[in-house]
Automatic annotation (TrEMBL):
Record flagged with keyword Zinc: no
Family that this chain belongs to: Belongs to the UPP synthase family.
Protein name (Swiss-Prot/TrEMBL): Isoprenyl transferase
Family annotation (Pfam families): Prenyltransf
Cofactor notes: Binds 2 magnesium ions per subunit.
Amino acid sequence: MEILKRWKNKSSSIHATDKINETKKMPVPEHIAIIMDGNGRWAKKRSLPRIAGHHEGMKVVKRITKLASQLGVKTLTVYAFSTENWKRPQTEVEFLMKLPEEFLGTFLPELIEENVKVQMMGEKEALPKHTLNAVEKAITDTRHNTGMILNFALNYGSRAEILHAMKKVLTDVKSGIIDENEVNEELFSNYLMTEGLPDPDLLIRTSGEIRLSNFMLWQLAYTEFWFTEVYWPDFSEDHLLEAISDFQKRSRRYGGV
Ligand code: V0D
């Protein structure tokens, strides 16, 4: 029985490696962004509290991070908390704000082992101290890592990001740091929270919603979109491989022919 179980595990992991190698034969998106939607609905379907869905969703982030890193993805951006999410019940927000600590408590050593570099974009000021401390420790402990960038969008909203960038550009023009005539798309990009990162090649949104919900409005201008009805806690390694495989079949023209 034990032998059979071990053989089965081994064969399934060989199978997984085959799939990964198959995917790597064609260009893998350098930057994947994910809107991880449907955690509450996943829980409701099972008569569980919404927080159970968020907790399950957190485990999926770990699995998808590992696979993306193995595939050679250079940046993985995940939308963990929007500026609109503060409107949710206080107990739910409090639970959500504990997830980074739980995630990193168990997973930070693995991230370090995998050479993953943790980053965050969003308004840090409004986050509870305990949340910010955990995230900042992860950022510090992984700052010299050279592998995949795992970028958490946390208390992030794209219109606010763009307005903030615009105001910073105005300040720098007024103070003479830059000239008005230098302001172009490339320069403006470097005033956004994604400074230094390439634009996403692939956006994934789960749970059947077909909209951007104030996520990376500037950066997604030429991105390929991939939507699925699957709730985020049910999103598996196979779903990511399917999204990438579909991406590889599309031809991107960036507005040309
Ligand atoms: C809940 C589904 C990981 C979406 C995923 C604070 C909603 C699970 C983190 C996380 C959340 C964030 C920063 C970090 C390490 C981990 C996370 C939140 C929600 C909101 F440095 N999952 N996760 N953060 N969910």
